[in-house]
Design goal:
This protein is an alpha/beta fold. It folds into two domains: about 190 residues, Rossmann fold; about 70 residues, no CATH class. About 30% of the residues lie in helices and about 25% in strands. It contains nine helices and twelve strands. The strands form three sheets. The chain has a six-stranded mixed sheet with strand order 6-9-10-3-11-12, sandwiched between helices. Strands 2-1-4-5 form a four-stranded antiparallel sheet, covered by helices on one side. Strands 7-8 form a two-stranded antiparallel ribbon. Strand 1 and strand 2 form a beta hairpin. Helix 4 crosses helix 5. The chain is globular and about 65 Å long. The chain starts with 11 loop residues before the first strand and ends in a 12-residue tail after the last helix. Bound molecules: adenosine-5'-triphosphate and magnesium ion.
Length: about 280
């Protein structure tokens, strides 16, 4: 596990983020920091605001108010494309792959490689296929031989591998995985957890949203508990356990839990409390 120094500057800072959909408050002053080489798990009940928070970070949803900083600089992404250009990639809960396109076309969608031939720009299909095969082989061995079939013909777990390959193809700095294991078999879950460790070790910052608390405890450095759009607690995994996390998810940190957060060794225990 890579331990973060308490004073290392965060790669990503989300400060006091609010998101309202008409009468619904999806996020109420949510804050979160993320460091290089760190994996942070976000947990919370259905509707807690986890997906909304990461959709804001990746430019798919605009916050009602609040601030996002990337390497200390305030930023605002008007689209997922802008966030990608800054190195923020997301693999969505509801798998955003395009069924009638091939694996390779999905991986390079909107970022196609080209080559010049007699002064004309052509798609470099060979290059794209070569890169895709290499990526897919590492994620889902065997699937690399099917990079030219349409994604419609793949299983849920294989589509998941395509979505992850797409996110990895362009050397991201921040990788967000929203329920990446939902469609996966036990063996593939293990592979996904290994992948997350590899991403961390190569210096990426990773956000993992999962209802599988055991996965979060295995690969994450910190766990952020959300309820009703707000932060409940931000804990180092080594200072907590699944029992405590479940209690916090249910209680929202009431009944004495909050005083523990402020007194914990965690550097952000107090500063990232929502306000
Ligand atoms: N586009 C939208 N329009 C209106 N309300 C929305 C929209 N997206 C999310 N919400 C609402 O915002 C709240 C937070 O939703 P969100 O999807 O972020 O939750 P979540 O924590 O990811 O839940 P789950 O674990 O079920 O994926 C919910 O009450 C949801 O109904
Ligand atoms: Mg969600």
């Amino acid at each position: 596990m890579i331990q973060q120094s308490t004073d290392a500057a965060p790669v990503v800072e989300l400060r006091n983020i609010e998101k309202r959909y008409g009468q619904v408050s999806a996020l109420r002053g949510m804050s979160l920091n993320l460091h290089k080489g760190e994996a942070v798990g976000i947990v919370g009940d259905n509707g807690a605001g986890k997906s909304t928070l990461v959709k804001i970070l990746c430019g798919a949803v605009q916050p009602t108010s609040g601030e996002i900083r990337l390497n200390g600089k305030p930023i605002g992404f008007n689209s997922p494309h802008e966030a990608r250009l800054s190195g923020i990639e997301i693999v969505y809960q509801d798998l955003a792959v395009i069924g009638h396109l091939t694996i390779t076309q999905n991986v390079f969608l909107g970022r196609e490689e080209t080559r010049s031939f007699a002064g004309v720009k052509l798609l470099d299909n060979r290059k794209m296929d070569r890169i895709t095969r290499k990526l897919i082989a590492g994620l889902d061995p065997g699937l690399e031989n099917r990079t030219r079939v349409s994604v419609d013909s793949l299983s849920g777990g294989q589509k998941q591998s395509v979505a992850v390959a797409r996110a990895m193809a362009f050397g991201p700095k921040v990788m967000i995985l929203d329920e990446p294991t939902a469609a996966l078999s036990v063996e593939k879950i293990e592979r996904m957890l290994t992948l997350i460790r590899t991403l961390k070790e190569s210096g990426l910052a990773v956000i993992l949203i999962s209802h599988r608390l055991q996965d979060i405890m295995t690969v994450c450095d910190r766990v952020v508990v959300m309820k009703s759009g707000a932060l409940v607690r931000d804990l180092h995994v080594c200072t907590t356990d699944i029992d405590e996390i479940v209690k916090l998810m249910v209680s929202g940190g009431e009944m004495g839990a909050v005083s523990g957060a402020l007194g914990s060794a965690h550097p952000e225990g107090a500063s990232t409390r929502s306000g």
